[in-house]
Fold each of these.
Amino acid sequence: MVVNQNSSKCLNQKLGVKDLNLFYGNFQALRNITLEIPSCAVTSIIGPSGCGKSTFLRVFNRMNDLIPGARIKGEVQIDRIPIYGKTIDVVRLRKMVGMVFQKPNPFPMSIFDNIAFGPRQHGMTNRFELENIVEQSLRQAALWDEVKDKLKQSALALSGGQQQRLCIARVLAVEPEVILMDEPCSALDPIATLKIEELMKNLAKNYTIVIVTHNMQQAARVSDTAAFFMMEEDRAGILVEYGATSQIFTNPRDKRTEDYITGRFG
Amino acid sequence: MEIRTTFHKKLKEIQDDILTMGSMAGKAILSATDSLKRRDIESAQQIIADDQKINGKRFEIEEKCIQLIATQQPMASDLRVIVGILNIITEMERIGDYAVGIARVTILIGDEPPLKPLVDIPRMAEKTSDMLRRTLDAFINRDAETARKISNEDEIIDELYDQVFRELLTFMAEDPRTITRATRLIWVAHNLERSADRVTNICERIVFIVTGKMEEIGASKY
């Protein structure tokens, strides 16, 4: 593994892609993407359906590798170290780059075992250590107070919003540096959504968060930087504009961004 | 393809309201000066009464803007337009108040003998109301360049104000009995000078709406 786990957590650039092109067989899903994602911040990826947002997100934990026929050209880096090399340990990469999905997906086991699952997979057996990490993770995910008395109960009995925070806690338990979130609130009610958003802002003090969202108000609320993607005629996704969220949502430089966020095209 | 048709239709309606309010404020300035020139107390009283309509229009527009912000979550240029409008209506409301100030002077002067025929004061009023009219055109056309140019025309108003001030000062120096009447005319000129400054503030808002940059343009001498 070349990615240095001991690197200082808050460098300027955490993730970087350069001239990234991604193909599914003959279909090009992403074209010439170059951008740098800052550490300890929330970066949102917005754009119309099918523009390659989720594909782009999955580049960072090499989830696209699992899709037959997927291949990439160009460079993807974490802490300025390329992650698409033969020597890269993908399991360790995915430990470092956690992911939260649209639909909460707790494992059919107890709350405790859900959180302890990752650390156990990575070889942690000491009960005291596990208890400690479960509590810390649940606290960080703002769920501890709600579940501390029922850690042995099934995680499936939690509400949707609690399940999603459980999934975030599960990611935190393996001590990642980057958290990818693909539409993490689209299955949640507004209150649960606001809780997750608040959590994201807090987590961003220590983690690099990248979120794909269809909800522009959410992107405006939670992110520090925002990237707008759209499709070209052959449906390949391109990066149109990338900048501080405050600038993108008040004074976008590109007319296409302006038209998209003001609802003049979609 | 336009998606938010309802929202953009409502935004356009507010812009039409801005034109209406602008024309009310411009007319108030012209009529106030005209009633002073003609020493028409009745007309001056009407201007004071009509200011309520300008104030009402301002609250109506403000309310519509708040509704749009609360229900539509405007972004980018739409957001800048709404924020710009909230500023523009405040400036125009103040212009209406300056017209009221002039009308009050007309009532105060009553049937005192005129100090001199008014020449430069009506010129200031015409110029100010003309600047306001063209500024609102620039707003509708999203024309920052024209807004900057109009803002620079404030110098003409400042020069006229200087001229009125010097002239009235001469009257007062020559005959102290004119001091009261001359001072009142200086108030009028001052109100007009301030009105033109408000127009330049609107110009700054137009530049913000178009470019997203907050900049001070054509800073007034006064």
Amino acid sequence: MIIVKLKAFDELQSMLDPYQNILIVGCDGCSGIYEVGGLKQAEILKQQFELARRLKKAGKIRVKTVSIPRQCDVDIVANELRSEITEQEAILSLGCGVGVQTISDIYEDKHVLPGLDTMFIGMEDKNQGKFFERCKACGDCILAETGSICPITRCAKGLLNGPCGGQVKGKCEVYDYTRDCAWILIWMRLKKRNMLDLFTKFRPFRVNRLHSPKELEKTINVSKH
Amino acid sequence: MLTSGRIFSELMREINEGRFVLTGELEPEKTTDLTEVIEAAEALKRYVTACNVTDGPGSFAYMSSLIASHILQRETGLEMIYQLVCRDRNAIGLCADLLGAGALGIRNILALTGDHPSIGDHPDAKPVFDLDSAQLTHMIRKMVDEGIDLYGNPIHKPPKFHVGVAANPNADPFEPEVLKIGRKVKAGAEFIQTQVVFDIDVAKQFLKEVDRFNVPILMGIFPMKSYGVAKFFDKNIPGVPVPAELLEKLKKAKSLNKKVRKQKYNKINLELFIPFIKELRKTSAAGCHIMAVGYERLVPKLFEAVKM
């Protein structure tokens, strides 16, 4: 899941200040599922914007709301928004950064604005009531070797041959020993699975990382069926 | 692995001859003046085979360890162990500094991952960690043994280094630390200098676990010149608690008048470390790494007492 966060209302308001006619587009994907940027949030925002304009006596704002299944899908954005977008000056996207850019690439003449901050690829921990980052999309997955725990994401140094000397009783020196050391988690998991030979394995410098700076843009070919 | 037939440094020569080797530690700080560090090196010179030069310890932005290593080696004639961390330099920077170290006649490298910037005095500096200590070790061995860099590009006149790594006998949990040492040895580590140990039994247990890797171990000790130093160490060095009894003794000494206090501090340290080193000499340890930064005056006393 792409984990997102709604921008502060003040920031949204100043972003929309120049416009009288806007469309708020929710996304039923990652942001909608966790009720950060679905139709319901779009409608709440609409009411807040209208009220704020009235209180400021700054004239009327016309806000229309809609939500689509996935803002990151080019076909969905093109088909489902075509009839919604009319004379609006600006579109406020409640999708992730990919959603904003997908809409913007298709409706080039509209001002497409981000309503959310895109945080990371992560998952929910029900016990702690928090989202945690779990994948850096590094393009060279080694989870098979690390007990399905990602050191690129969860080790503060992103080490391939951890743990480092900064762990004490399984906690990391970064953030004052409040977070788990990823490599101690990996060791425990591999031990449990009777796979400690993988822990001992030396992992050389990776020369084929997708995030290598020589890749100006990450791309892969789409295979059409 | 112990590398027979290719000895580039005094440190490795003495280790290979089976002598019990002492190494010291020098810390260039936030200054352009190395006078005090040179004096410390001069004070240690008669007693140690080589000295480590720290590379921004605790992620503090101090003088470059490479440049300090060179100046110290030039000014004192004592061999240095250039500590190199992966925190601040990507693979290109590491390669560049290593080539420079080769040109300056540095012969020993201690390859370290390095602390995270967040614990130091530039907490928002970008953490690099392009490589880790095992990968750096591997890269250095490639440069030295095969004359190539990380990408296989040939090096004109490859450098001559011995590469060591760090280990922590106090690590908790301990098992992954041992496995990690095995991994670093696989990557090419030629010697190990350990984190501080206070308890000889901890040292012995550690040696028992890692002897199978057949790599010379220099056991780290930390004589403490005052209660303040001991307290700071206890609080700030991850995973190495100062024994409570020792802290208590030093605390009592603190209340004495100045002249007696100094003698008392010396006495406490000598009573702890003389038997420690004597006992250590009976083990498989290759030597002892004495981290007496600012307390060099104790080293001759230790040295005489254990009759090196």
